[in-house]
Amino acid sequence: MCKVNIYITLKEAVLDPQGKVISQSLKDLEYDGVRDVRTGKYLQVELADRENAEKKIEDMCNRLLANPVIEDYTYTIEEVV
């Protein structure tokens, strides 16, 4: 069995209004030095086995989990003992 950690973020060229609101709120709370905030999604997927895990995850992300037009994704795979 393996656990896959998937991180989905908006592409750099896509506006992130939620990130802008969070950034401004942090500045209003006097957290100096905050330059920018980008929001995203984090998902954990458990697969029965490691075989073809990369292909499965790429397929899942491109077909359902991420919108490839406006989002990028990265992932890590961990063996579960």
From TrEMBL:
Catalytically driven reaction(s) = N(2)-formyl-N(1)-(5-phospho-beta-D-ribosyl)glycinamide + L-glutamine + ATP + H2O = 2-formamido-N(1)-(5-O-phospho-beta-D-ribosyl)acetamidine + L-glutamate + ADP + phosphate + H(+)
Give the location in the cell.
Cytoplasm
Superkingdom is: Bacteria
Q: Name one GO biological process term.
A: 'de novo' IMP biosynthetic process
Q: Which GO terms describe its cellular component?
A: cytoplasm
Alphabetized UniProt keyword annotations: ATP-binding, Cytoplasm, Ligase, Nucleotide-binding, Purine biosynthesis
Pathway the protein acts in: Purine metabolism; IMP biosynthesis via de novo pathway; 5-amino-1-(5-phospho-D-ribosyl)imidazole from N(2)-formyl-N(1)-(5-phospho-D-ribosyl)glycinamide: step 1/2
Query: What's the Enzyme Commission number for this chain?
Result: 6.3.5.3
MF terms (GO), sorted A to Z: ATP binding; phosphoribosylformylglycinamidine synthase activity
Which SUPFAM superfamilies does the UniProt record give? PurS-like
Pfam families in the cross-refs: PurS (PF02700)
Record-linked NCBIfam families: phosphoribosylformylglycinamidine synthase subunit PurS, PRK05974.1
Q: Which HAMAP family match?
A: PurS
Q: What biological function has been recorded for the protein in this entry?
A: Part of the phosphoribosylformylglycinamidine synthase complex involved in the purines biosynthetic pathway. Catalyzes the ATP-dependent conversion of formylglycinamide ribonucleotide (FGAR) and glutamine to yield formylglycinamidine ribonucleotide (FGAM) and glutamate. The FGAM synthase complex is composed of three subunits. PurQ produces an ammonia molecule by converting glutamine to glutamate. PurL transfers the ammonia molecule to FGAR to form FGAM in an ATP-dependent manner.
Subunit architecture:
Part of the FGAM synthase complex composed of 1 PurL, 1 PurQ and 2 PurS subunits.
Protein family membership: Belongs to the PurS family.
Q: Which PANTHER family match?
A: PHOSPHORIBOSYLFORMYLGLYCINAMIDINE SYNTHASE SUBUNIT PURS
The protein here is known as: Phosphoribosylformylglycinamidine synthase subunit PurS
- Please give the organism: Salimicrobium jeotgali
